Amino acid sequence: MVARSIGVGVALLALGCARATPDAPLSTAERSALPGAIYFLRGDEAPQLLRLALGTGEITPITEVGPAAFLSELAPDRRGLALTLDDQLVLTRADGQEPKVLAPSEGLAWYPRFSPDGKVVLFESSRASFRDLYTVELGSGSVRRLTHNAEGNFDGVWSPDGKQIAFASSRHGQLDLFVMNADGSEPRRLTRHPGDSVKPLWSPDGRQLAFLSGRDGRDDLLLVPAQGGEVVSVSGSVTGRDHQGAFVERYHFTPNGQSLVYSVRTPKRGSKIWIWEASTGQSRRLSGEAHDDTDPALSPDGAHLVFTSKHQGRSGIWLMQIDGRKRTRLTEDGGAWLPRWLEVVEGREDS
Q: Is position 121 within any domain?
């Protein structure tokens, strides 16, 4: 792991504008005022994790070149990162220093998720089965197995209060959504549909779960009450008027829980970013017709989006306001993808 700055050959573009328009890119001063920093991947076969400072455009490597790195999330205290590094769980400081392998095993491990209090990490592993969910206590290192199904259990996520875990399981054949207590007890089935249901995401108030499901020839974004009940389509109005084979790629709740930002790929139009408003039940497109945008992620305050956009066949990191205006290119070298916008705290906890 390293934390030295690399040349600004992959930096922010100079954004001097001869005239001010409502859709002009963000100025240097506007970027500098934004909270946090952008973490993103570069490369395909063995992605490297890097961080971009919004104000200066300086890019800092978080992991070395070689091991495949994927960022899961920021610790609740905002000082550490949970990564998957060559199929093992790794915790580091926010600058990539002091890496520590968590719950080492010969089996593979993925998708580490901090509990809301930051004391436990939930993860998915093949250490004793095809795929099951586990937790590890950060203080003691004690590992606990939560699921015991040969068919497989995936995509575990904590509820906002840390008392429950939502996940996908194929224990009844197709993949369905379940919710269980944080200790693995009392699993409840939420969905019953021949189309697989995967990748649950809790709303900020813990009342709903967003998820993906392959229904009607498309992979749509849906909502279901956390206690079970009627399933509501979020992306159906978008994918339904496009082509068979459309699918939602990535999605996030806004901090107030009243909107979902998501991207949809269709066979002929590429990827576009949309926002769904709970108040109207309707989706509005944020990407222009000519844009190929995916991987949206929200700023900590929910006022902006960072995303991957392809230009002349090369992917780079861009940002825009939550209303789709002020598109601003952040990287120009190509090969950058899957950005995350994190408000980190630098240095040691005792500093």
A: yes
